[in-house]
Amino acid sequence: MKVLLEALAPGSEDLALARAIDSERLPAHIAIIMDGNGRWAQQRNLPRVAGHKEGVPAVRTTVETCAQLGIGALTLYAFSVENWKRPRLEVDTLWRLLRVYLRSELALMMRHDICFNAIGRLEELPEYVRIELGDVTRRTSANRGLRLNLAINYGGRAELVDAVKNLIQDEVQVTEQSISARLYTAGQPDPDLLIRTSGEMRISNFLLWQIAYAELYVTETLWPDFTRAELLRAILDYQKRDRRYGGLGGSETGFPDRSLEPIEIPIAR
Ligand code: IPE
Ligand code: IPE
Ligand code: MG
Questions:
Q1: pTM of the entire structure?
Q2: Which atom of ligand 1 sits closest to the CA of residue 35?
Q3: Whose CA is nearest to atom 5 of ligand 1?
Q4: pLDDT in tens, 12-33
Q5: For the chain, what are the domain ranges?
């Protein structure tokens, strides 16, 4: 948090927003569905891939800001198992962009002590992408700051299928803990905050198990237009939520509630 406050320009909106954040109640894990690249490009009469290219700086700012804030984990949805349905040219361009991104961002990851991790069915990716992913994962593996999970060829259902297969193979008892321990995010806290850009009110097969009690934040902003200010606003919004986990939330520790006294309930015969 201190790192972010020191990095922001005096008098800027970003600094005012960052100052309003309670550093004691930061989300431990933020997950983001980075959506709307295609629409961003269409609005400008550009090919869809131009939108993906323009999404890269937004990724950079988001990753850097989370690291500077002291967030524990950030999971970014970059490519779903369903995204193979898109035109070949678009998919190939995404892989090439990913390679460029990994090469250009390594320095930033090292500077901010970020530990990179790719999650998804990576074995189905082109070999040159796997090599690059392996390289950045290895080089950042000793870093102890932000854990950056990039979800690529990721599907929440596929992840659960793999976890259950693993349980059966190991002849392990099925419990919530044993399933969690076999997900790609094993050992990490579940996301507290799930952000989706471009206004779609759906989950699109992302982290189905892990988001059981995540707070949702959907913004109309298209991913390439997502700024640091918007990320900070999402965190501020999250800090206003009353997380009840099925209980009574804020009122649980309050004064004795007369409404909890037994009342007569007439039973119709
Ligand atoms: C999200 O943007 C990026 C990926 C899914 C790879 P989209 O490409 O889905 O953009 P829209 O939803 O078509 O605008
Ligand atoms: C979700 O976006 C996947 C990623 C952001 C990588 P999609 O654009 O694929 O989702 P739908 O098709 O609108 O549900
Ligand atoms: Mg989309």
A1: 0.95
A2: 1
A3: 79
A4: 999 999 999 999 999 999 999 9
A5: 25-157+188-237+263-268
